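Lecture notes, part 5. Sequence design as translation. It can be helpful to think of inverse folding as translation between two languages: the language of shapes and the language of residues. The source text, in structure tokens, appears below.
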């Protein structure tokens, strides 16, 4: 079987909208013998499996169609190719084309079900919760239904702060998390000015709370000058000069 894909995304969208329950029409003069629908489905499943990336090799392939009562003449030369955009981790459409003895084509939708471990809330959690290991659980979910930013390792979430509340069993997304505030208003911190290979440090007082990467206001204890700088991972505040 050979793979070919020359169909434009626009044509694909139009075809999918038009497919409905019927995925193809055999020649009007054909009266048998018919191609076995199960053999067509099996060939489609084998074609899709052969094109899966290595990390999706265990995906469950669900071949949808053919519509009940739809028949196609027996085929000696059958070819398959992905129709339109082929998502190796999601739903696909395979074009099955016969060139001899009768010419016909049928478009068969295929669904990939690939489970992936994902971190979820073990119980309802309020906004502002600093996540601990026992706040989280790991379950298997269909990867095609998961957001790209779903957290898959609980260590990526432990110690982080929820930006808003979540329900029990809800997947934890990276976009839901903030780093904890490590600088607090009124706290004395190290103020570091650096540039052109020079680094100067002094003591300042934080005027705002801050987390790593966040810009806050601090007051230089020596000069009394208010400066805006960026909190680093160690809790110092960095300013360029």
């Amino acid at each position: 079987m050979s793979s070919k894909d020359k169909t434009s995304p626009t044509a694909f969208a139009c075809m999918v909208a038009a497919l409905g329950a019927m995925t193809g029409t055999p020649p009007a003069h054909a009266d048998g013998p018919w191609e076995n629908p199960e053999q067509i489905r099996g060939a489609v499943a084998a074609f899709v499996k052969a094109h899966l990336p290595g990390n999706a090799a265990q995906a469950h392939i669900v071949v949808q169609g053919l519509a009940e009562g739809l028949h196609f003449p027996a085929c000696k030369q059958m070819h398959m190719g992905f129709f339109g955009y082929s998502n190796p981790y999601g739903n696909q459409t395979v074009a099955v084309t016969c060139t001899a003895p009768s010419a016909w084509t049928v478009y068969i939708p295929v669904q990939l079900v690939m489970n992936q471990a994902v971190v979820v809330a073990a119980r309802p959690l309020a906004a502002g919760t600093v996540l601990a290991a026992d706040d989280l659980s790991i379950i298997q979910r269909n990867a095609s239904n998961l957001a790209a930013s779903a957290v898959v390792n609980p260590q990526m979430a432990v110690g982080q702060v929820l930006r808003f509340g979540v329900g029990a069993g809800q997947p934890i997304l990276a976009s839901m998390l903030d780093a904890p505030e490590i600088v607090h208003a009124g706290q004395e911190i190290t103020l570091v000015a650096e540039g052109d290979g020079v680094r100067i440090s002094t003591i300042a007082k934080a005027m705002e709370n801050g987390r790593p990467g966040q810009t806050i206001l601090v007051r230089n204890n020596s000069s009394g000058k208010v400066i805006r700088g960026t909190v680093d991972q160690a809790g110092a505040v960095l300013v360029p000069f």
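The translated text above is only one of many valid answers, since several sequences can fold into similar shapes. The first helix runs from residue 9 to 19.
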